[in-house]
Every structure is written in C-alpha cells, then in structure tokens.
Amino acid sequence: MLKSQYQTRLTLTLAHLLNAPKPEDMKNKSPEAYKHFELMQDFYRQIDNLGYEELPEDLYARWLDYIEKEKAKSEKLPSIFIPKKGG
Known about the structure:
There is one protein chain. By secondary structure, this protein is mainly α. 71% of the residues lie in helices and 0% in strands. Helix 1 (2-17) packs antiparallel against helix 3 (31-49) and helix 2 (23-29) runs antiparallel to helix 3 (31-49). The relative contact order is 0.09. The longest helix is centred in the last third of the chain and has 20 residues, at 57-76. The chain has helices at 2-17, 23-29, 31-49, 57-76. The protein starts with a helix and ends in an 11-residue tail after the last helix. The chain has one domain. The protein is built from 4 helices and no strands.
C-alpha cells in the first residue's frame, strides 16, 4: 500500500513538472516518466486483485474495538507455555 502511495505521489509530481495532465502527454514528453505511471497502475491492479476495499470509518472503529476486546480476553487466559510459579 505504501509503495502505491509513493508511486502515485511520484507520478503526479512528474506529471506536474512535465505539464502533462494526461498519461498520453506524459508518454510523449518523457517515456521514462511514463514508466512510473505504468508502475503506479500495476500497484493498483495488484491491490485490487487482493480484494482490498475501503472500510467506512465507523465500521473500522468498531473492528478495532472488537480486536482490542479479544486481545484483552486472551491476555486473561492462562498460558500453556509459561508454567505457574510454585507449581
């Protein structure tokens, strides 16, 4: 995800510097810069193929709360790996 964000920022910066608002303009002005556009598209394709979807903020907050509660529950359970002292 971070790589795609970096690549997007780089591509947008190159497009701005080249005054190339469309990918075709970038390709004509600088084939090397256009390779960054293609790489950005590849990253987004990979993310889409993984099934990534944006979560609404409230749903994400509820999920984080649920994870925190489950973690607290599991921390209260006795460990099978750490023996009790004195026994």
